[in-house]
Amino acid sequence: MSEPISQGAFRGDVLIRSDALLPRSMQLESQAFTPGWRRVAAADHYELDRQIQDARWTFFYLAGEIKRTAFGQNENAVRRAIGRILTGKELENFNSMEIVSWKTIRILGMPFVTLTAHARQIQEGATLLQPRWTTNCTKANSSHELDKTNYERGTHVVNQWG
């Protein structure tokens, strides 16, 4: 098992937006992590991947690390660093992120936590498209017209998980 980053957060954990559209067939346990985000444990990462593939959806892994630093070396510092990533511009267009690593550093003797993550996207199809949140599912999104048939194909909201 990976080393805990903070209470309830481990390397390899995936955080998914609560309003993300997911395959209806997904039956994976998740826990509320912070407002608007749910956590899938690193131990369930393989099962998450399998269920996404079985539904013929794609779990994109986006290149480019996202790093944030927070003062301190305890759980609160780690949560602040995670919060800074979740509210940053890098995740505006994506519905999930994966925690890659973390380390405690000292700058002029003061402790800081640096957290590294990657943006992820769960969506139907093999081409990375504009995000489809449940809150704007009836609006056109740039050049992509949102297709209401996605709901008929079996999508649902992640916060309906057990």
Q: Decide which structural class fits the backbone.
A: alpha+beta
Q: Return the domain count.
A: 1
The number of distinct β-strands equals: 11
Which percent bin holds the helix content?
10-25%
Helices and strands, in N-to-C order? EEEEEEHEEHEEHE
Mean pLDDT: 77
Shape: elongated
Measured by DSSP, the beta-strand proportion falls in 35-45%
Biggest sheet: strands, sense, closure?
Answer: 7 strands, antiparallel
Please, what is the oligomeric state?
single chain
The N- to C-terminal Cα distance equals: 23 Å
Spatial extent as radius of gyration: 16 Å
Number of helices: 3
Unreliable spans: 1-6, 134-162
Quick gist of this model?
The protein is of the alpha+beta class and 162 residues long. It contains 3 helices and 11 strands.
Describe, in plain words, how this protein is organized in 3D.
By secondary structure, the chain is an alpha+beta fold. It has one domain (4-160). The protein contains three helices and eleven strands; from the N terminus they run ββββββαββαββαβ. A hairpin with a 2-residue loop joins strand 5 (31-34) and strand 6 (37-40). The two termini are 23 Å apart. The model is unreliable at 1-6 and 134-162 (pLDDT under 50).
